[in-house]
Amino acid sequence: NAGVTQTPKFRILKIGQSMTLQCTQDMNHNYMYWYRQDPGMGLKLIYYSVGAGITDKGEVPNGYNVSRSTTEDFPLRLELAAPSQTSVYFCASSYGVVSLNTEAFFGQGTRLTVV
Amino acid sequence: TQLLKQSPQFLSIQEGENLTVYCNSSSVFSSLQWYRQEPGEGPVLLVTVVTGGEVKKLKRLTFQFGDARKDSSLHITAAQPGDTGLYLCAGDNDYKLSFGAGTTVTVRA
Prior knowledge:
The complex is a heterodimer. Chain A is mainly β. Chain A contains no helices and eleven strands. Chain A is globular and about 40 Å long. Chain B contains no helices and eleven strands. Chain B is globular and about 40 Å long.
C-alpha cells in the first residue's frame, strides 16, 4: 500500500539551478496539493489541483510551477532555485474536498537545501 | 498571515502528566482537523470535528470544537513518550486545508 510517494527524499541545489519534485499517488484521488514546511511556520500551500488538467495557486506560488497531466502524478517544478526555497516539501492527496470530512494523505517529504 | 493560531508553540512534560494544546482563529470553519507529525514523516490525520460544541475521544486524546466553530483544543490524558510529536490543526479555507504553525510536544520518560 504505497499511498503518496515523493522523490527524492533529499536534495541540495545550487542557486539558479532547476529541479522537479515528483509526487505520485495510487489511491485514485482527484485532489492533490503541494505544501512547504518551514520551522515554526506550519505548512503553507504552494499549488493544488482538483483533477487532471486543472491546477491553481495556493498561498505561496511564486518561484514554482506545477502540472497535472494524469490523476496519479503532480510534479512540482523549481525553475531558478533561490535560498528562500530551502524547505521541506510535502505532497498530499485527498478523495474529495477536505471540508466534507475527507482525510488528506501526505507523502514523507522532500528536504531541499539551496546553497 | 496565519488563519489558525496554535498555542503553546512548545510543550515539554513528564510521562503521566496531562496537557492541552489550543487552536484559535477569528474565522469560522465548517470543520477542523488535527494531525500529528513525527520527525521525517508527513502529517497523519488524528480526527476531524465538524459540529460546533462537538467532543471526540480517541483513547487518551480528547478533541473539542468550539460552539462558534472558531477554535478547537486537544487534551491528552496521562501522556506517554509515544505521544511526542508536532500537533497541527487545519481548517478548510475555500476548499483547501489551511494549517496552524503547530505545537511541538515532548513527553519525557
